[in-house]
Amino acid sequence: MNETLKVDRRDAKLALAHIYVAFIALALGGLAGLLQTLVRSGKFTLPANISYYTILTTHGVLLGLVLTTFFIIGFQFAAVSRTAGTFSDRVRFWGWIGFWLMTIGTAMTAFFILIGEASVLYTFYAPLQAHPGFYLGLTLVVVGSWISGFAIFAHYARWKKEHPSQVSPLLTFMAVVNMVLWLVCSLGVAATVLIQLLPWSLGLVDRINVLVSRTLFWYFGHPLVYFWLLPAYMIWYAIIPKIIGGKIFSDSLARLSFILFLFFSIPVGFHHQLMEPGVEPFWKYVQVVLTFMVAIPSLMTAFAMFATFEMYGRSKGATGLFGWLRKLPWGDARFFAPFVGMLFFIPAGAGGLVNASHQLNQVVHNTIWVTGHFHLTLATTVVLTFFGAAYWLIPHLSGRVMTKAMNRLAIIQTIVWAIGMAFMSGSMHFAGLLGAPRRSAFSTYGNSPQALEWIPYQIAQAVGGTILFIGIILVLVIVTNLAFFAPKGETEFPVGEVAETAERTPLAMENWKLLISITVALILIAYTIPFIDMIQNAPPGSKGYKLW
Amino acid sequence: MHIHKYEKIWLIFGIGSLFIFLTIVGVSAFAKGNQPPSGLTTIDPEKVDQTPPFNKPGLVKTGDNEYQLNMVASAFSYTPAQVEIPKGAKVTINVTTKDVIHGFEVVGTNINMMVEPGYVNSFTKTFDKTGEYTILCNEYCGAGHHMMTARIKVVD
């Protein structure tokens, strides 16, 4: 089980299966997104009595949960197999079990959404009550992802056993951190679904504690976004340096930033509940402080990336303050797409700090500003990085090569995406500042002059949404080509090497007992007292409602 | 672990900014009382119509130029649907719901609350300018969510 340059055929099949599902979700979820922006422009109504909220639920579940989770697990399987060696049959077997559970769960969830039994949006806040099949489907997705997580842990443990007192490969380490993060946070959503929502929707219990359910959801909901972001950071830290021909700036700082994400991305859920009754303001502030701490590893990442770029440019003879920019491989979509994603993370991160600040949150909470925010973070930074990775990962796994024409198309795709998103997310931010709510069908609120002001921005969103849908068609063309039609050949799975000047990585960074203890301690500090309060001072519970 | 000199400068600047932001938010919240709405009063969501003050929703004068506005949210409307507030009045808005979670946003102001079954959420605001404000639901509550609205008129 030594480091191999090529992912084993059998592991490649497992990774590809995940990636196919991810891109099918992109096609369907993207179509739903296009329809939403058209409806909100006020110029278009959905045919055949299809509800805006059914479409919205479909969009959120398919893109927020399915596209992300499947791509991430597929990518991580490939990265771990590439850097820590081919999987054992047992690890691969459990990987397939995880895949099928997630796929069956997705199909089940999608079925109940599409027949209109679960128009509860992807946050499924009680006491809106969906069909039990919706919750059961989501449970299967989460359980499947846990199994895949444990498959990765088992493979990592075996590598450590076979390589005593050696530092694990960077990509493998990062994948393990991300799956630990995922496991710890998804316990929250599993608890609310299994203990509260499922028995209540089955009629086994009459009433539900709404605030506890929401708190458990958001205990999961924020680290969820870091579960999306960390694979993008893996690609930035460990793969982009190789693509441009440079070196990883520092292995130990990369690991440190991942460890900080593990610590600080979980005990921060209250920043989604700042406007909520039933939570003492003091505890909201504690979690706001922790939320700001999670910006630190992102600052470190920004530094490391630009240091890598500059070091590379200078090694190619660049001079002057910004001369190195010209040496970067702008014509290579594997670099260009993630790079544009990085640029979008600058306003996205700043907007995130706005959302996490009490008084500013009061202005933007539940307005379409927030939708604009996560269409920068997730739908641009993360997604463009995933597209950029797909351009080498899919041909590597399918035994093909990307042609120059496809590379050119991928560059165009990135530009189309950036333009579409600038329109859509930009106008969402502006309309949000004027008070336009998120998650709402077109409405003038009884011809309110304030609501009429939003319409031009909503039309701009539809223009942006249409451009983005063209971007989705382009990426689907490229991905289909790379998977089935591109010329046969060998494509490199790029893995960066550490710069000679960087220091050795301390082994203490893999002291999991310590890392997990700190994570749990921070969670207990942030949540114990307010959570006990919620249960001790609970109002009468709520029965279920189906109001759609 | 060694950290490059430039990275140290960058991180000191970055982390320093974060602490300045946190101090501003914290001082505003704890010293100046700009806390987010965090009502801790509970109520039986099925007995809202019988529980004061929500048995008689509307504007109540509580002192010199001070008022309480008690509002009930339910799918898909607010009671009362229209309120007149005298200009310059300091109004404490109390709001609760009879059924699912709703939002309570007064467009163009900082009034923005989650309204959750079992709780009364509150926020105090002085209305200094005359004009019409739109109240709307900004948390998805069902098929008629986008029709859920009310008006505040601030009059001389």
UniProtKB/TrEMBL annotation, chain A:
InterPro entries: Ba3-like_Oxidase_I, Cyt_c_oxase-like_su1_dom, Cyt_c_oxase-like_su1_sf, Cyt_C_Oxase_1, Cyt_c_Oxase_su1_BS. It is found in: Membrane. GO terms for biological process: aerobic respiration. Keywords: Electron transport, Heme, Iron, Membrane, Metal-binding, Respiratory chain, Transmembrane, Transmembrane helix, Transport. The chain crosses the membrane at residues 12-35, 55-81, 93-115, 135-157, 169-197, 217-240, 252-270, 282-306, 335-354, 374-394, 415-435, 455-479, 514-532. Residues 13-540 form the Cytochrome oxidase subunit I profile domain. GO terms for cellular component: membrane. Its main location: membrane. Coiled coil: none annotated. GO terms for molecular function: cytochrome-c oxidase activity; heme binding. It is a multi-pass membrane protein. It holds the Pfam family COX1. Gene3D superfamilies: Cytochrome c oxidase-like, subunit I domain. PANTHER family: CYTOCHROME C OXIDASE SUBUNIT 1, CYTOCHROME C OXIDASE SUBUNIT I. Belongs to the heme-copper respiratory oxidase family. This is Cytochrome c oxidase subunit 1. It comes from Anoxybacteroides tepidamans. The lineage of its organism: Bacteria, Bacillati, Bacillota, Bacilli, Bacillales.
Automatic annotation (TrEMBL), chain B:
This is Cytochrome aa3 subunit 2. Residues 64-156 form the Cytochrome oxidase subunit II copper A binding domain. One of its GO terms (molecular function) is cytochrome-c oxidase activity. It is found in: Cell envelope. Keywords: Copper, Membrane, Metal-binding, Transmembrane, Transmembrane helix. It holds the Pfam family COX2. It catalyses: 4 Fe(II)-[cytochrome c] + O2 + 8 H(+)(in) = 4 Fe(III)-[cytochrome c] + 2 H2O + 4 H(+)(out). GO terms for cellular component: cell envelope; membrane. InterPro entries: Ba3_CcO_II_C, CcO_II-like_C, Copper_CuA, Cupredoxin, NosZ/Cyto_c_oxidase_sub2. The chain crosses the membrane at residues 9-31. It comes from Anoxybacteroides tepidamans. Subunits I and II form the functional core of the enzyme complex. Electrons originating in cytochrome c are transferred via heme a and Cu(A) to the binuclear center formed by heme a3 and Cu(B). PANTHER family: CYTOCHROME C OXIDASE SUBUNIT II, NITROUS-OXIDE REDUCTASE.
